[in-house]
Design brief:
The complex is a heterodimer of chains A (267) and B (260). Chain A has 267 residues and is mostly helical. Chain A folds into 2 domains: 38 residues; 220 residues, Orthogonal Bundle (MetI-like fold). Chain A contains 11 helices and no strands. In chain A, helix 10 runs antiparallel to helix 11. Chain A is globular and about 70 Å long. Chain B has a 6-stranded mixed β-sheet with strand order 5-6-7-3-8-9, with helices on both faces. Chain B has a domain of 176 residues: P-loop containing nucleotide triphosphate hydrolases (Rossmann fold, 3-Layer(aba) Sandwich). Chain B contains 8 helices and 9 strands. Chain B has 260 residues and is of the alpha/beta class. The chains are: A mainly alpha (267), B alpha/beta (260).
């Protein structure tokens, strides 16, 4: 039992870390540059990127905060909205599957097409740039995060173990109680399945929406601005920050999931 | 054990059930089945798969409506009896809620029925004692063996203090040793609580060991081909399984199937 756990840790943590270390070594020793026929201007060394982040971290903070607000705002709104769509699908069974297919189709619209459209749409929302631009970005991320939650919520609300519906029926209870005592808790693991998709997606969505935003702020916007100005090491510093933000949020999600679903995974 | 009083607790009259299969063709699951079950009786519905035994149990408990025929339970319709929460049902799978502890799983129907809090607690302890799971009240289903999970299912059915206990192949997923142990446990619970039990099984020896009477159902179409009285003395114990009387009853039941 204990040996198995240790073996698991080695394969799930050890191997990826080792692989990452290998890439960094190849990168730092410029093997990567030779391999991909590039130079230190386009692909700065990891130590250089690291020192830029270290020197400019206080300047980066407002950019990080702005991206974080957009990402989290969109994630929360999109998840709530998606869950409600899932509920509607589960309640109105006739339209459930069809409605969800349409939502999924929405998800196929490329983000780079969606972001500028939303940006134009919200132009008259407020005279304050910061407000209307933030709203535009959050809406973009919201749409980006809705589909996976709605599909998974629908499945979690409808895919209950065989006989459970019969059991509740045998108690003579109505649909309302069955919903709260059975369907809702049953959907919880499915919510986490959706979040495993939409947590990384919300960072991507926020970064891309910043590219097209009126407001010149955010980690994504800084990547773009610095590439335009030819400041590749700074652009790379922001790319790294975006990656770390996504990874950190994902790790937090996994920890929360492990705590919330602890007893269901005892098997 | 059963007292043959006047009105039967469960009365099934000329019940037929026709389903449509996936191609839309009608399939006769039950044809003209009639049974009267007395209060406190232990009755088995025995037959191979496709004989309609589970269908019959679901009709009695109002989870299905028969195509024709009449069912009365305690003098009322199955629906009235279901809404009065007089049925305790144990399914093939334990059907526990993974996110609730054993205690909270047993509490579930009591919450639904708005049983007062103190009474909930006392009933839960009582049924946990009855199924021998006192130390496992705070465990989650995922931490229990299949046999223990099924005991929780039985405890949950008993907690609502039903008049009628309906068991739909409750031990078919368990190994032989666990099954025989649980057979004895169910008999001992039945003796203590004196419920009417309708027990669906495809295991001939199990039905002989448990029942007062065995309703033998034959398939295609599902029909009642015999009712076998089991006159083995009670309380029954594992030693009886090896007696000639037991073997003779098993043989008699086996010979009463038709068309298999």
């Amino acid at each position: 039992m204990k040996g198995k756990v240790i073996k698991n840790i080695i394969t799930t943590v050890g191997l990826p870390v080792l692989f990452g270390a290998l890439i960094f070594t190849l990168w730092q020793t410029k093997v990567l540059h030779t391999l991909f026929k590039t130079d230190e201007i386009i692909l700065p060394l990891p130590t250089r990127i690291g020192s830029i982040i270290g020197d400019n971290f206080t300047n980066m903070l407002p950019q990080i905060a702005s991206t974080m607000i957009v990402a989290l705002g969109g994630l929360i709104l999109g998840s709530i909205f998606g869950y409600l769509i899932g509920v509607a699908g589960a309640v109105f069974k006739k339209w459930g599957m069809g409605g969800l297919t349409i939502v999924s189709a929405f998800n196929a619209i490329p983000l780079v097409a969606l972001a500028p459209v939303i940006n134009n749409w919200t132009r008259d929302l407020s005279s304050v740039v910061d407000i209307r631009s933030t709203v535009a970005k959050i809406i973009t991320v919201t749409i980006f995060c809705t589909a996976s939650m709605s599909v998974n919520a629908y499945r979690g609300l409808t895919e209950v173990k065989p006989f459970l519906e019969d059991l509740f029926a045998s108690y003579g209870v109505g649909k309302f109680k069955m919903f709260f005592k059975l369907r809702l808790p049953n959907s919880l693991p499915y919510v986490f399945t959706a979040l495993r998709v939409s947590v990384p997606a919300c960072i991507i969505g926020a970064v891309v929406s910043e590219y097209f935003a009126e407001q010149v702020i955010g980690v994504g916007r800084q990547i773009r601005e610095n590439i335009i100005k030819g400041q590749f090491p700074t652009a790379w510093a922001y790319i790294t920050v975006a990656c770390v933000m996504g990874i950190l949020m994902y790790v937090i999600l996994l920890i929360v999931e492990a705590i919330v679903l602890k007893n269901r995974r005892a098997r | 054990m059963s007292e043959k009083t006047n009105a039967p607790e469960i009365s099934v009259k000329n019940v037929s059930m026709v389903f449509s299969d996936s191609k839309g063709n009608p399939v006769q699951a039950l044809k003209n089945v009639s049974i009267d079950i007395q209060k406190g009786e232990f009755i088995s519905l025995l037959g191979p798969s496709g004989c309609g035994k589970s269908t019959l149990l679901r009709i009695v408990s109002d989870l299905l409506t028969p195509t024709s025929g009449e069912v009365t339970v305690c003098g009322k319709t199955p629906r009235e009896t279901r809404l009065e929460q007089k049925f305790g049902i144990v399914f093939q799978n334990p059907v526990l809620l993974d996110w609730r502890t054993v205690r909270k799983n047993i509490r579930l129907p009591l919450e639904m029925m708005k049983v007062p809090k103190e009474e909930q607690a006392s009933r839960i302890e009582q049924v946990l004692e009855l199924v021998g799971l006192k130390e496992f009240g705070n465990s989650y289903p995922g931490q229990l063996s299949g046999g223990m999970q099924q005991r929780v299912g039985i405890a949950r059915a008993l907690a609502i203090q039903p008049d009628i206990l309906l068991m739909d192949e409750p031990f078919s997923a368990l190994d032989e040793f666990t099954r025989e142990k649980l057979n004895d446990d169910v008999l001992s619970i039945w003796r203590k609580t004196n419920k009417t039990v309708l027990f669906v099984t495809h295991n001939i020896a199990e039905s002989v060991y448990m029942s007062d009477r065995i309703c033998v159902l034959s398939p295609h179409p599902g029909r009642l081909s015999a009712i076998v009285d089991v006159d083995l003395p009670r309380p029954r114990n594992a030693d009886m399984r090896g007696t000639p009387e037991f073997a003779a009853l098993v043989e008699k039941v086996r010979n009463s199937f038709e068309g298999i």
